[in-house]
Amino acid sequence: MNNLTLVIANKNYSSWSLRAWLLMTQFKVNFQEVRIPLDTPDTPALMDTHSPNRRVPVLKIGKLSVWDSLAICETVNERFLQGAGWPSNPDLRAIGRSACAEMHSAFGALRQTMPMNCRRVVSGFTPDTATQADIERMLALLTACLTQSDGPFLLGRFSIADAFFAPVAIRLRGYRIETPELVTAWIDQLFDLPALQAWLDDAGNETETIDAEEVPDRG
Ligand SMILES: N[C@@H](CCC(=O)N[C@@H](CS)C(=O)NCC(=O)O)C(=O)O
């Protein structure tokens, strides 16, 4: 057993945790998992124990803590995947890095009004104007990646980009957003991965509910 521990939150809700977990699981990196349920009286103390910024995911490599999902994915790629987390084509790598950076720094409305919720399919969801604009940009970005790489994953083979956008795939399905054929095929590919299925199964078995993350059905 190596000395890697990935600290995550609820699998049902934690989109940031999913990114790091999916990359490591799909690439068969051995790690132990520590789960901190969000929004409980114990959450702040547990976060203090495991995370320098009270957020997860955190990857512990021996005494070293790496926080933030993008930093974790890059570190895992560098230390454990010999670079296989990104495609070998430098143009696709640059596109993938741009896409992940955009995911990290934008899409605020989509994140806020369409929280990831692995257990739910929300009916009657109508995006507001800002969310609709985020959805349109998202679909354009996903389509551009799939067109440029020729699929079936965003940059060809499964990469950090797919790990990063997996929560988006879950949201697009979960809020019943209409997607172009190319994007639908990518979502199907992702959902077919045993690693993602394992995460979804675990999420389905969790018992905690966070009301603020539960978007009501509207018909
Ligand atoms: N940009 C950070 C965001 C991490 C983040 O916001 N994580 C949430 C869980 S999804 C968290 O730890 N929240 C702490 C809390 O709600 O107490 C990343 O990419 O890792």
Task: Summarize, please.
The protein is α+β, with helices and mostly antiparallel strands and 219 residues long.
What number is the mean pLDDT? Answer: 97
Largest sheet: 4 strands, mixed
The count of strands amounts to: 4
Ligands (ions, cofactors included): glutathione
CATH fold group of the largest domain: Glutathione S-transferase Yfyf (Class Pi), Chain A, domain 2
DSSP summary: helix tally: 9
N-C termini distance:
49 Å
The percent range for helix content is 40-55%
The SS-based structural class is alpha+beta
Overall 3D form: globular
N to C succession of SSEs: EHEHEEHHHHHHH
Assembly type of the shown chains?
single chain
Gyration radius over CA: 17 Å
Strand order of the largest sheet: 2-1-3-4
Q: Briefly, what CATH class of the largest domain?
A: Mainly Alpha
User: Which segments are poorly predicted (pLDDT under 50) over 5 or more consecutive residues?
Assistant: none
Q: Domains counted in the coordinates: how many?
A: 2
**Which band does the percent of strand residues land in?**
5-15%
Level-2 CATH architecture of the largest domain: Up-down Bundle
Task: Describe the model.
There is one protein chain. This protein folds into 2 domains: 4-80, Glutaredoxin, CATH 3.40.30.10; 90-203, Glutathione S-transferase Yfyf (Class Pi), Chain A, domain 2, CATH 1.20.1050. The model has no long low-confidence stretch (mean pLDDT 97). The protein is built from 9 helices and 4 strands, in the order E-H-E-H-E-E-H-H-H-H-H-H-H. The radius of gyration is 17 Å and the shape is globular. Helix 1 (15-26) packs parallel to helix 3, helix 4 packs antiparallel against helix 6 and helix 7 crosses helix 8 (181-191). The protein has helices at 15-26, 43-50, 69-80, 90-105, 108-113, 129-149, 160-174, 181-191, 194-205; strands at residues 4-8, 32-35, 58-61, 64-67. The protein has 219 residues and is of the alpha+beta class. It has a 4-stranded mixed β-sheet with strand order 2-1-3-4, with helices on one face. A hairpin with a 2-residue loop joins strand 3 and strand 4. Glutathione is lined by residues 9, 14-17, 38, 43, 47, 55-57, 68-70.
